[in-house]
Amino acid sequence: MDILLIEDDTIEVMKLQRTLSKLQLKHNIVKANNGEEALEILRSGEKSPDIILLDLNMPRMSGIEFLEILKADDVLKYLPTIILTTSENRADLLKCYQIGIAGYVIKPLKYEDYESKLNKVLEYWDINQLVKG
């Protein structure tokens, strides 16, 4: 699976890569530091990712601003986008679902819990027909 990770925190990126390695998952990760960089990657004409993992709290463009632009694009709006964030703000959660996300995962503090949650998300999308199609 090709995954676009939009995350500005280097430690969170390393945590995701460590998790993939530990779980022996061979997914291809493309990283963007913010929403603007992600849009450049998505509009570059290269192969689109199968899923997007998006942090909400980022500089320059918030995750919600990125989502609004993504979902307004006739081509990109179908990309499954999963929020991976520390925000437990119910207003953020509702706004993201209103815009059109595929999931909302709160990053747990314990690494073991993070690993478990991430594994479940990736297992689901690995068998999902939208990604397989």
Helices and strands in order:
Layout: E1 2-6, H1 10-22, E2 28-32, H2 35-42, E3 51-54, H3 63-72, E4 81-85, H4 90-99, E5 103-106, H5 111-127, H6 129-132
Parallel strand pairs: 1-2, 1-3, 3-4, 4-5
Overall outline: globular
- The side-by-side strand order for the widest beta sheet comes to 2-1-3-4-5
Q: Determine and state the CATH class.
A: Alpha Beta
Q: What is the total domain count?
A: 1
What is the CATH fold-level name? Rossmann fold
Q: Structural class, please?
A: alpha/beta
Number of helices: 6
Give a description of the structure:
The protein has 133 residues and is of the alpha/beta class. The protein has one domain (2-117): Rossmann fold. Helices cover 47% and strands 17% of the residues. The chain has 6 helices and 5 strands; from the N terminus they run E-H-E-H-E-H-E-H-E-H-H. It has helices at residues 10-22, 35-42, 63-72, 90-99, 111-127, 129-132, and strands spanning 2-6, 28-32, 51-54, 81-85, 103-106. It has a 5-stranded parallel β-sheet with strand order 2-1-3-4-5. Strand 4 (81-85), helix 4 (90-99) and strand 5 form a beta-alpha-beta unit. Helix 3 runs parallel beside helix 4. The longest helix is centred in the C-terminal third of the chain and has 17 residues, at 111-127. The protein is globular and about 35 Å long. 25% of the residues are buried.
List keywords for this structure.
133 residues, alpha/beta, Rossmann fold, five-stranded parallel sheet, 17% strand
Question: Short description, anyone?
Answer:
The chain is α/β, with parallel strands linked by helices. 47% of the residues lie in helices and 17% in strands. It has a 5-stranded parallel sheet with strand order 2-1-3-4-5.
